Amino acid sequence: MKSYKRLLAYMRPYLKRLGVAVICIILAAAANLYVPWIIKDMIDKVLADKNMSMLNIIAIGIVVVFFFRGIFYYGQAYLVSFIGQRVIIDVRDVIYRKFQRMPLAYYDQHQTGETMSFITNDVGALQSALVDNLIELVTEGAILIGSIALMLYLDWKLSLLTLFTIPIIAQAMKVFGRKLKSAGTVIQERLADITAFLQESISAIRVVKSFTREDYEIARFKEQNELNFQAAMKNVQLSSLLTPTVEFLAALGVTVIVWFGGYEVVNGVMTAGSLVAFLTYAVNLANPVKRLSRVYANIQKAMAAAERVFEVLDLEEPIRDKEDAVPLPQIAGHVAFEAVSFEYSKGVSALENVTLEAKPGQMIAFVGPSGAGKSTIANLIPRFYDVTSGSIKIDGVDIRDVTLRSLREQIGIVPQETNLFSTAIMENIRYGRLDATDEEVVAAAKSANAHEFIMELPYGYATAIGERGMNLSGGQRQRIAIARAILKDPRVLILDEATSALDTESEKIVQAALDKLMVGRTSFVIAHRLSTIFNADCIFVIENGHVKEQGTHQELLSLGGLYSNLYSIQFNKVKA
Ligand SMILES: Nc1ncnc2c1ncn2[C@@H]1O[C@H](COP(=O)(O)OP(=O)(O)O)[C@@H](O)[C@H]1O
Ligand SMILES: [Mg+2]
Known about the structure:
Layout: H1 2-9, H2 15-49, H3 52-101, H4 104-109, H5 112-154, H6 156-203, H7 205-210, H8 214-266, H9 272-284, H10 286-313, E1 335-345, E2 348-358, E3 363-367, H11 374-380, E4 389-394, E5 397-398, H12 404-408, E6 411-414, H13 425-430, H14 438-447, H15 451-456, H16 474-488, E7 492-496, H17 504-518, E8 522-526, E9 538-543, E10 546-551, H18 553-559, H19 562-575
Parallel strand pairs: 3-8, 3-9, 6-7, 7-8
Antiparallel strand pairs: 1-2, 1-4, 4-5, 9-10
Bound molecules: adenosine-5'-diphosphate and magnesium ion.
């Protein structure tokens, strides 16, 4: 109920249209109710009095009423669909917006398919609740109320008699129906028993034969078969008893109504035409009742979907702008971690007490075994996750005090593998800065060493990614990613193993592009190959979420610890 109210709130912008739609629905329903009235006039006025002018009036009335009914029908169908579709589109937009705002931690815990299902399936289910069921609800409601009102108008005593009789008969049919159904279940079970028996005895036929137990099995089967027969007969007995009983009850009810109606006609309380019209309304009463109960079931179903949708909309967004967040002004690029600890999930430490500093324009490198926490450090700088304790400051400002947008706009990331969109290469690079001109995109591609291979593609910059087998190699994709970052022109750069998925040949080209990209920016480089970070201003050796060693390449080598170990391993590897 609460969900329905909330869903209806989305209709608020369309209230005027909704009002017109409801009027159309009611008028169309009223036209339906006019039919028995025609019969009444035919019998009472045209046939009884042989009144020709009345016949003409009725004929014209039919044409006019059904003409307008068509117009109202069109109005209702068009308007209700319009409102329903609009509401669904609005809901879909709201959910998509929500998903864009959800932190990465949400996506760590939920599969892509699950997230997509909210936007496609659940919202689709809502649509049927809104459009189809809303029309039926109002139409059938109007017909139900209209029929009852007209019946009361025609003859209130007969109406009360009818309205008491019908529910009693309906109730009786329901009770008997349930009994029949349970008898049917017993038959199904008996049949299942036979199948199970056959399955067992036939697959064990070797055993049966070797013990010459054929006669024994035949007797057992006869017994099962007999049980099935009894169950079937019981069902037949029940249904052949119940059907006439119910029909007799119904006949009794109808007789009561018809007798009383006829009695009133004979005594001149009611006209013949009125009685026929009355009975038509009474018989047709079953339709709206049936349809309304179906509408109710559908709405229940749709509400389950609505609840799922609203549950998503109500999810907390732990990472968002503070109330008093201010935009981070153009930064110089001074980044400092102060005693930063971090847990992805409560109690499982991923980083502990990490303190580090990068001065504007410096290159900071992280090395260490896989799973040490290097990417985690990188994830904290753009606030993909918030630190558990300690703080990260950029140019002296805690990154939690500034708006996410202004922070992330000044940080560029080249990950290990880059997602490209299925649009033209030009648009893929422009993702780095949406208002970049074509010339700027090309210039960025040139300094990312990407221009040449792009020009060799079938349509150059207009070539769409992923179309007709158009796929780029890993090295080409990384150069697109670098071009994006160049366009963005961030002060702080994060390279998380940007070349580790590449073969040696393309690694060289990509590394050259990265070297150009890093000039003049504060860079955090996570390296799998030490040769790329020899000239870093400071190298941090990370292990198990801790900073184990820090210093320049030379300092760390002379320390003779983890780093020099790593160095000699890689150095030997290169040699071998
Ligand atoms: N999204 C995540 N959710 C939960 N745990 C994670 C997530 N990402 C990384 N971890 C865990 O945090 C630790 C550090 O991972 P990571 O920073 O990716 O290591 P590295 O980049 O040094 O290989 C690992 O134990 C890893 O399993
Ligand atoms: Mg990593």
